[in-house]
Amino acid sequence: MHFHGRHLCGLAQVAAGQKAQAQATFDDLIRRYESLAGQRDDSLVPISLTIAYAYAGRHKEAIAQGQRAIDVYRDDALQRPAAELAMAQAQALGGDADAAIAALEGLLKVPSTYAITPALLRLDPSWDALRGNPRFEPLLKTDAIAGSGPH
What we know:
globular, mainly alpha, about 0% strand, single chain
C-alpha cells in the first residue's frame, strides 16, 4: 500500500477507536518510509509522515516533518493547507494546544481541497486533546468560519 493509503488507513483506525491497530499502521508507515529515505520522492510523504510520527508519540519528529511539509508546499495553494493541518494535528497530539488552535483559527478561514470545518473539528478524534480548551470550543461553532453565519 502506498504511503498516503497507509496514512488514511491509520486515520480510519483512529476514528474507529482501534488504537492498537492504528499504532501498528503508523509504526509500519514510519518503518517503510525510513527504509526508503532518500530513494523516493512522493509528494504526500511529508504530510503522511507528520501524522504517523504524531500518532506514534514521536513529537519531535512529527514537528520536524510538519515543518518540512509546510516548506515543501510553501507556494502550493492546494497542498499547503493540508500540510498546515497535519502540523496542527501533530501539535495537538503532542500537547501544544496553543499552536494547534492558532493554526486551526487560520485554517478555518482558508478555502482548500482539505478544508477544515467546525463539523470536522467536532467529530475528528485528532482533536480530542483540545476538547474543553476555552480557545478551541468557539471553533466548533458553524459561525467560526469567515463569512459564514446566518443567511
